[in-house]
Amino acid sequence: MRMHLTGRDKSRVGDRIRAVKEPAGPDRPAERDPAVVSTVSEMLARIEREGMPAVLDYAAKLDGFTGTDLRVPAAELAGAADQVPAPVRAALDTGAERTKRFAAMQRERLQDFEDEVVPGVVCGQRFVPVQNVGAYLPAGRFPLLASAFMTVGVARVAGVPNVVTCTPPSRDGRPHPAVLYAAQVSGAEAVYAVGGVQALAAMAFGLLDGEPADMLVGAGNAYVAEAKRQLYGRVGIDVLAGPSEVAVLADDTADAPSWPPTCWRRPSTGRPRPRA
After folding, report:
1. What share of the chain is helix, strand, coil (3-state, %, to 5)?
2. Which H or E run contains 153?
3. Are 137 and 147 in contact (CB under 8 A)?
4. Span 230-254, pLDDT tens digits
5. 151 with 137: CB under 8 angstroms?
6. Of 50, 111, 116, 216, which sees the most CB atoms within 10 A?
7. Could you state, in order of their start, the residue ranges of all structural domains in the chain?
């Protein structure tokens, strides 16, 4: 994806649009960095070859995980609410409920049908949920709480019977309690404290609960995006998240020191090398 306005672009728009800031250097998304591609390939190959010992090794080195069982204990998942401030819980409850409500509206409009095209020839369509979904909730540097709504919650509304959830440890070697609470209110039953490439590989290869994922969903950093790209075909994916496309239209009545900069920064959160 091209991030710069070329000379031709600028000549077309003239002085109607002023470029306040443009990316420096050539346009090369981190997801296409040869070093990222190579590292992910090596990790996936090793995890497929060695299984859970490789996942635990990467989890220790990259996530700071110190245990032997990646699954978050039921008591920790249930007790996450006690560690989340009441206003945050209320916001998460609202977000989860509204997302599931909209997903239900979408599902209701996807209709199964059969009809006779010509005498004796009956055609139709059926919407059948996949059996196993692996949901990734990014939280390595910043807990992105709404991720659970759009992955776990939507899969539950769609009727997916088995949803496995992974989120990286973010403090004291444990998942952030707000992420756990968001996952719980979205319908997560099994949450594993593992992130990055090792999480996606574990879900894709069925190393966590014995059921290989039919589909992987959820955003992440360049390594997560590249892992999804390399695993695609073996599993389905939602989308390869790339640079965010942001346009802020403001006139002289806008609160320039406040809202426009906030709009620019928001899509760049959660990544060490954000692109927007």
Report:
1. 45, 15, 40
2. none
3. yes
4. 999 999 998 886 666 666 677 777 7
5. yes
6. 216
7. 31-103+126-239
